[in-house]
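pipeline/complex-builder :: batch 7 item 3
reading input block
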Amino acid sequence: MRLRVLPKGQVPDLVRALMADYRVWGPKAKGPQFAFEPLYDPAEMRLDYNISILSPKVALQPPQERVAVFRMDGGFTVEPVVEAEPTVIFGMHTCDLHALALLDRAFSADFPDAHYTERRQQALIVSIECLQPCDEHSFCKSMGTWTADSGYDLHLIDLGDAYAVYVGTEAGEALLAKYAPQARPAADAEVRRLNEVMSAKWPRFPHRLNFDAAELPALLATAYDHPIWTELGDRCLSCGSCTNVCPTCYCFNVIDSPELSLKEAVRLRRWDSCQLDEFARVASGENFREARAARQRHRMFRKGKWLYERFGELGCVGCGRCIRACLTHINIVDTFNAIHASQHRR
Amino acid sequence: MTDSLYAPRVARLADIRPMTELEKLFVVEFPDGSSLGHQPGQFVMLSIPGVGEAPISISSSPSRSNGHFELCVRRMGDVTGVLHRMKPGDFVGIRGPFGHGFPIEQMRGRDILFAPGGLGLAPLRSLINQVMDERGSFGRVIILYGAKRPAELLFRDELEQWAARDDVEFHVTVDRGDETWTGNVGVITTLFPKITVDPRNTVAVTCGPPIMYRFVLMEMLGKGIPETQIYLSLERRMKCGVSKCGHCQINHLYACKEGPVFTYAQIKNVPEAL
């Protein structure tokens, strides 16, 4: 792993230089919160953000995108639309980096999905180490996502007046050489400083899961009929906020929409949510997950068991977004802990 | 240009045959004459530009492809509503074939018991006709078919052919008869006492509404047919067909990928499946 040092004052120059050749996404202030959006001015970027409302998946799987255009003229023709451009996602936190690993697998498996994979191939990831938990809802330490040693092209760690920069890939090396030639190898004192910063980080992050996250799939295997699902179902409003903000939720709807001229129609892919009533309803009216309790269970099982079994990555990265977003305080950590507690009381 | 999983091929409606008040049979072909290349039990995603897309099981047997395939479609929603108003020569979009169909190779040499209910005959017909076309490589063929009313019976000409064959044991019933109906009246499970099977050598296949197949499965198990030899085709909401969109997920299984055809052994312990 190669290590460089980049003075903080040079980050705006780096971002500005990148903006000339790439669409650069970064965290920006949005009211009292933060959002990943394309940057138009390096000064907009807030690397001191705690957490973004939506995860940076928005840069790779936008909430709505065109996937095909139909042209109707007697018969019709279909033109696939794969919209990708050279992109840098700057300032991604490591929880979201781990989520990206899952999205990469999900969209590449079986039938590779060009809309995602093309964007992904053209995207460079500059992540940044969190030195504080974002708030009381983060449980990244429990999920093992509070740091990362791969998945990025460049990874920044705040040393005070400079960033330590881990170079993860050749593309990251090339990016640094071209756009931040001022970055230099770390001096011994800087390596010592880096070690101090990382050592000081560990105790600041609490463990919030009362058991090892690796036990989650096995724990949930015993909890399908747990009474907690009814309790969550009674509270859930089926609003879908939890899945919208989740960095590993990628379910979508496919919608065809005619232009006013009726000469053209677009096929759109739009985020969808397993929490919505009609998600599993078929044309005859049969709904295979009619109860809100069943839908909440479905979400939590996807996060803690099924995605892991399919892709080898847990579907929860401990970002806490679903907890913050829930209007009725449904809390995935409390849920997992409650199941664990009840299964170990016996 | 990069291709998209979600961009359909243009196909033509070569013929449209009315079947019942609600169902029509659509004969579909690709303008370049290429075949769909499907297995019995697979499905396609059928598009109507500007209207939408719906998963439709393939009703025709690969053994009778002749450059076209058949979709038996009930008029239910937006897409199927518009489809039912289309004329021969009109164009639709097709993606697929998708999914895991019936493992016909593992069925050869065995007796086959088909028990479709209502529109469940649509996917099963792809397998039934392949078995008919390769009749010599299968043992006994038993077909038990149930519909709500005589007017809802699908593929009536083929039902008559099956009934007339010496090498097919065919029984049909309706939940409620009418003035023209002289046959069996009762739900499909009332047909099971009419047949005997050699359970170890029998493969059983069903498809229909959940309220029907739950009881049919019990009858099949009651005949002693092993769980690994009972096949069921499941209906689910589908938006992608390629194991991405999440709609068809049944616990850890995707109906579009691991299914729509499952063995009873595969899904008996999967909640939400049956």
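note: The domain at 107-229 of chain B is CATH 3.40.50.80 (Rossmann fold).
queue -> next item
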